[in-house]
Write a structure and sequence with these properties.
The structure holds two protein chains of two kinds. Chain A contains no helices and eleven strands. Chain A is mainly β. The termini of chain A are far apart. Helix content of chain B is 0%, strand content 50%. Chain B is built from no helices and eleven strands. In chain B, the strands form two sheets. In chain B, strands 2, 4, 5, 6, 9, 10 and 11 form a seven-stranded mixed beta sheet that branches. The relative contact order of chain B is 0.33. Classes of the chains: A mainly beta, B mainly beta.
Chain lengths: 110, 115
């Protein structure tokens, strides 16, 4: 069965510092990887997906199949980035039965 | 567009009682998903509807959980009888059929507390 691991429960950085939220997965096939974010008092929402290879709000994530990782990075953190971040994996093309990691809380201090 | 709405936002019941959670997906979304987050654990898939049909219910924990989607519109998730371990946040999400996999629109969740 597939699994998503986010080793950090909490990541605390200062504004302007680089950020890397780690995500590792285990799956024997070709997965699709996503990052979802939940800001305070808001609903869970899609941040980015690996197939798009885009930068959203300054965040990027590269799928590394050799290391089975999909780490989320931002060169300069902002206070408004403070949120809960979930890495998720899908094995079914066309459907969205996602396997989530436990999430990492990112706190960006001024 | 109006988002996915869930009701109630919070329910507190006693062990053995019944609770019904409701989800109204975004209009036109054929796919409807239920997920659950138990405290300290990851968000887990429960089941997936395509219109009114259950596409995948492999995540349903046991037969105390019953999900329906009447006419392919709103969905209900009933827990009967509720147990302590059912406490958690139940999320509903929806998507278009043609939407790329993984792009789900989530509701705010229904928090269930079983005492």
């Amino acid at each position: 069965a597939q699994r998503v691991t986010q080793p950090e429960k909490l990541l605390s950085v200062f504004k302007g510092a680089p950020v890397e939220l780690k995500c590792n997965y285990s799956y024997s096939g070709s997965p699709e990887l996503f990052w979802y974010v939940q800001y305070s008092r808001q609903r869970l929402q899609l941040l980015l997906r690996h197939i798009s290879r885009e930068s959203i709000k300054g965040f990027t994530a590269d799928l590394n199949k050799g290391e089975t990782s999909f780490h989320l990075k931002k060169p300069f953190a902002q206070e408004e980035d403070s949120a809960m971040y979930y890495c998720a994996l899908s094995t079914n093309s066309g459907y969205s039965t996602l396997t989530f990691g436990k999430g990492t809380m990112l706190l960006v201090s001024p | 567009e109006a988002g996915v709405t869930q009701f109630p936002s919070h329910s507190v019941i006693e062990k053995g009682q019944t609770v019904t959670l409701r989800c109204d997906p975004i209009s036109g979304h054929d796919n409807l998903y239920w997920y659950r987050r138990v405290m300290g654990k990851e968000i887990k898939f429960l089941l997936h509807f395509v219109k009114e049909s259950k596409q995948d219910e492999s995540g349903m924990p046991n037969n105390r959980f019953l999900a329906e989607r009447t006419g392919g519109t709103y969905s209900t998730l009933k827990v009967q009888p509720a147990e302590l371990e059912d406490s958690g946040v139940y999320f509903c999400a929806s998507s278009y059929s043609g939407r790329a996999a993984g792009e789900l629109f989530f509701g705010e969740g229904s928090r269930l507390t079983v005492l």
